[in-house]
Amino acid sequence: MVSDRRHLHRHPEISFREEHTSAWIGDRLAEIGCASVRKGVGGYGLVVDLKGDHPGPVIALRADMDALPLQDLKEVEYRSQTPGVMHACGHDAHTSSLLAIAEYYHSLDGGFGGTRRLLFQPAEELTPGGALPMIRDGALEGVDVIYGVHLWTPVQAGTVSIRGGAFMAGVDEFTIEITGKGGHGGMPEHTRDTIVAGSALVQALQSVVSRNVSPLDTAVLSIGSFQAGEASNVIAGNCRLKGTVRTFDKGVRDLMRQRISELVRLVCAGFGTEGELDYREGYPPVVNDELEAARCMAAAAELFGDGNVRESELITAGEDFAYYLEQVPGCFMFVGAGNSEAGAVHPHHHPRFDLDESSMLQSARLMIGCAEKYAATFSRE
């Protein structure tokens, strides 16, 4: 796993461009001896069916493979060799763990029940993502349950974090274009100032969560970009705002979009400007099946001990694993990958991101353990 992970780390590819990564995974699967490999699933995705000699369920296990448009600043021998691209979220390690799982099941020579379907998915980092295209290409046909793991450096290595129900946020993005009338900075009475309108709108938008969303619900609204004007003595006639919304509930998600739309129209009009909202829904919330989350927690406790398994907090990052969970029961889990002694101290999407590579073994063991616990229950039923 370490060797595979470091190869992928040296040769990253961004979302929707994982041509060489996909080909390399196919070659590795051939080396392992996996005969039933579908390539080109949903783009550069691969689907591997490992079939046992005994009746049983079809259990899907998923890993993502894409990197980020980020310069690798780590001083390690396996740093990215592609300028401006790096694995800064652990997808190289996810892929390596799933390759090890393929090798494990292949080594059993059919000595298990049912089918283990391994999904090597492209394009998780960039919407609309790679999960939906894979689903459209049949990746979930016949699947009874699905499991996935994200190696997570905010959690200490050796720890497993799982949550039933809503787990990770739905992620939406929006752009607001404000049009007014530019002019001389010394004669503002002849203008319709979009910077003033945009500033007021930013402040008004902060009231959506605090005054429209119930205190018992969770939502985040952040403005990440405010672009207007170039000169100190010119009032800007145009302004652009960009932001993101994170929610865990469909009703709250719809409310956020409605209120943002209303405020854009009303606040901009109040300053004599016009606001146009481009709102794009991204990944839905990751909602784990309660029964499967309990099953996975039990499997993790058996493997690693009760003291190393905890219920996760809500995570406001997004994941297109959500689409799989909308189709079949399953569970998405965090395996701790943070370790200061191993240099795994930086957050995900950081140019010095790294992880404790021993977490890959824990990830592989956990997914196998969850699959086999489900298979044992399935056979009894």
The tally of helices reads 9
Alpha carbon gap, first and last residue: 35 Å
How large is the share of residues in beta strands? 25-35%
Spans where pLDDT lies below 50 across 5 or more residues: none
Key structural traits:
381 residues, alpha/beta, eight-stranded mixed sheet, 9 helices
Task: Please provide a written account of the structure.
It contains nine helices and 16 strands. It has helices at about 1-10, 20-30, 90-105, 130-135, 195-210, 250-270, 290-305, 320-325, 360-380; strands at about 35-40, 45-50, 55-65, 115-120, 145-155, 160, 165-170, 170-180, 185, 220-225, 235, 240-245, 275-280, 285-290, 310, 330-340. The strands form four sheets. It has an eight-stranded mixed sheet. Helix 1 (about 1-10) packs antiparallel against helix 3 and helix 2 runs parallel beside helix 3 (about 90-105). The mean pLDDT is about 95.
